Amino acid sequence: MSLTEQSSFEQVEFGQKVAKIIKQMKRVENSNVSLQEWADHVSMHKYQLNAAFVSLTGIPPITFHNAEKLEIAKRLLVFEQ
User: Fold this and answer.
1) DSSP classification of residue 32
2) C-alpha 27: how far from its chain's center?
3) pTM
4) What residues have CB less than 8 Å from 60, skipping those under 6 apart?
5) Which of 3, 22, 39, 66 sits at 20 to 30 Å (Cα–Cα) from 12?
């Protein structure tokens, strides 16, 4: 079943789970977490999480997470100087 075939309630629930993952991705200590670990964190299958994430953000979670890690590294470099 695709995201477009799911109920509005499920879509809202997936949106909340994706928002929770995004919030966690922005934390320094979560820089080496795998897609499976993110999925386990919100009780979703990794393929389901990937589909929901792409549907809501337009990019896969790994791409988003890598961009967040770069931003964290930039902030840390600026802070250390």
Assistant:
1) T
2) 12
3) 0.76
4) 50, 53, 54
5) 66
Of the candidates 73, 43, 11, 79, which has an alpha carbon nearest to the alpha carbon of residue 65? 73
- Residue among 57, 58, 55 nearest 11 (CA): 55
pLDDT digits (tens, 9 = 90+) for 27-48: 877 778 899 999 999 999 999 9
Asked whether 53 and 62 are in contact (CB, 8 A), the reply is no
- 46-80 burial, b for 16+ CB within 10 Å, e for fewer? eebbbbbbbbbeeeebeebbeebbeebeeeeeeee
Whether the Cβ atoms of residue 72 and residue 40 lie closer than 8 Å to each other: no
The residue type found at 57 is T
For residue 80, what are its two tokens? 């250390």
| Tokens 């879509």 belong to residue | 11
| CB distance 17 to 55 below 8 Å | no
